[in-house]
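Priority: medium. Attachment 1 of 2:
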């Protein structure tokens, strides 16, 4: 009997121990699962960048929804802006002497036709003052011609001699009047031949110049040429080029020829002996502050492409040769997204991979979001969607 009672107590003890062990195991499994669940929840937004809306607005961060649109194939090259034919003139020296520049004669300044650009002084020159010499020659020839007129009536001189005297007098008169027109006490004034802008000053203060020497170049700057140099490998694509964009080095602004009344003039049918490039020439109106003679980056626009995903160049950031955009997830959340680039027209860039239609991408202030990603010490998502 005692033996049976002992066996019963032993059975109860064993069953209780097993139940306690199972309870501990279930609790451990439950705790592990709970921790794992929290880890997944915390890790779900570990790549999210938090930038409060107030800070984003203050930093000028803007975003827009990406939609497919038309784009063009692009040939990127270099080129030069040139003054159009007939839009440029050069003031030359009408007398020999020493140059004295006017204060307003600097490159880029606006001038009217006839505005004095510089003065040429002949004081101290061995030949003497050319205006005084022209005046003396004019007065002498005039008296001689008048004397001949009186003598021819008495048939003392022939009509031929009178004609020669008249010719000498007229030449002297024209020369003197031309020089005297722009003469002053300081010397001979050289006026601007046309109204426009001073393109280049070809002499320095104190230089000695001779008659006919170029002094100042003036451009009207209304119509300009864009001359692009294209590699021979793109020759078969030149027939499809219809317009271009170009970027200037002095303001980094991208100009579109379609907004400047631009048109394609011609493209070369062969390369020159001294170059492996083929010229492509456009003409356009200078509606901005474009400097003739400047070298520019040119984006030749070729065949159209439909349903292309593209973003403004301001949306891109670069890290060690890899490009990224920032996709906006909600009002304060952003995600850094790697992208593959395609054609670049100077203002927008084709996106081959990384962004799809309907994504909201940061188009302005991308670097502010990048700075915010560096300052986010806690990667976990800390606000409610």
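Attachment 2 of 2:
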């Amino acid at each position: 009997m005692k033996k049976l009672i002992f066996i019963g107590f032993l059975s109860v003890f064993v069953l209780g121990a097993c139940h306690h062990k199972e309870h501990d195991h279930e609790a451990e499994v439950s705790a592990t699962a709970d921790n794992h669940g929290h880890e997944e929840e915390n890790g779900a937004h570990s790549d999210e960048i938090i930038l409060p809306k107030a800070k984003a607005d203050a930093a000028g961060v803007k975003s827009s929804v990406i939609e497919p649109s038309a784009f063009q194939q692009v040939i990127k090259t270099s080129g030069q802006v040139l003054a159009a034919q007939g839009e440029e003139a050069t003031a030359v020296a009408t007398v020999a002497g020493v140059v004295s520049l006017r204060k307003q004669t600097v490159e880029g300044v606006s001038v009217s036709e006839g505005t004095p650009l510089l003065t040429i002084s002949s004081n101290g020159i061995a030949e003497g003052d050319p205006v005084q010499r022209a005046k003396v020659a004019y007065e002498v020839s005039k008296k001689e011609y008048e004397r001949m007129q009186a003598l021819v009536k008495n048939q003392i001189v022939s009509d031929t001699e009178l004609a020669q005297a008249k010719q000498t007098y007229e030449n002297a008169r024209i020369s003197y009047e031309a020089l005297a027109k722009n003469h002053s006490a300081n010397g001979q004034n050289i006026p601007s031949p046309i109204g426009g802008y001073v393109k280049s000053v070809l002499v320095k203060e104190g230089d000695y110049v001779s008659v006919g020497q170029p002094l100042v170049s003036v451009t009207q700057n209304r119509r300009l040429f864009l001359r692009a140099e294209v590699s021979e490998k793109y020759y078969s694509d030149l027939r499809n080029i219809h317009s271009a964009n170009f970027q200037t080095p002095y303001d980094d602004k991208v100009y579109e020829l379609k907004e400047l009344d631009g048109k394609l003039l011609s493209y070369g049918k062969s390369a020159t002996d001294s170059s492996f490039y083929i010229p492509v020439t456009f003409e356009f109106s200078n509606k901005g502050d474009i400097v003739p003679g400047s070298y520019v980056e040119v984006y030749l626009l070729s065949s159209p492409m439909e349903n292309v995903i593209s973003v403004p160049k301001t949306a891109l950031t670069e890290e060690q040769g890899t490009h990224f955009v920032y996709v906006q997830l909600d009002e304060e959340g952003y995600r850094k997204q790697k992208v593959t680039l395609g054609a670049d027209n100077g203002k927008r860039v084709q996106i081959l991979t990384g962004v799809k239609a309907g994504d909201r991408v940061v188009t302005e202030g991308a670097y502010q979001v990048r700075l915010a990603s560096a300052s986010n010490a806690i990667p976990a998502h800390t606000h409610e969607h």
